[in-house]
Design goal:
117 residues, alpha+beta, TolA/TonB C-terminal domain, five-stranded antiparallel sheet, 2 helices, 16% helix, 44% strand, transport, transmembrane helix, TonB_C, transmembrane
Length: 117
């Protein structure tokens, strides 16, 4: 029954922290690039009905590449957490900017693994 279930991955990005800013600084948050691939829903997790949301904390470098990636809140399932981390490490981002110049910034990305029946 679960083998044929469709996977819904809801990926939203929110800026959670950045370098310290002065009152008059102009900041644009880092963003995902839409072409990033969705994490793989592990087969065993799908077969056993594991679902959950993984919050991945990523430091986006000035180049838009992930510098550091870690779990900020687990889904409760190691396989789902590992899949989310692996995907985010391969993603490309548009870096945050301060007064037009790229800066490093942290993003907290919720990735929901849900089996649609």
């Amino acid at each position: 029954m679960l083998r044929n279930a469709a996977l819904t991955l809801l990926i939203a990005v929110s800026l959670t922290a950045c370098t310290s800013l002065e009152k008059d600084d102009e900041i644009q948050s880092a963003n995902q690039i839409p072409k990033n691939g969705a994490p793989i829903y592990p087969k065993e997790s799908r077969n056993t009905g594991e679902e959950g949301t993984v919050f991945v904390y990523v430091l986006v470098g000035k180049s838009g590449d992930p510098v550091e990636v870690k779990i900020s809140k687990s889904s409760g399932f190691k396989a789902l957490d590992d899949s989310a981390i692996s995907a985010v490490k391969s993603w490309k981002f548009s870096p945050a900017r301060n007064k037009g110049q790229p800066i490093e910034a942290w993003l907290n990305i919720p990735i929901a693994f849900k089996i649609e029946k």
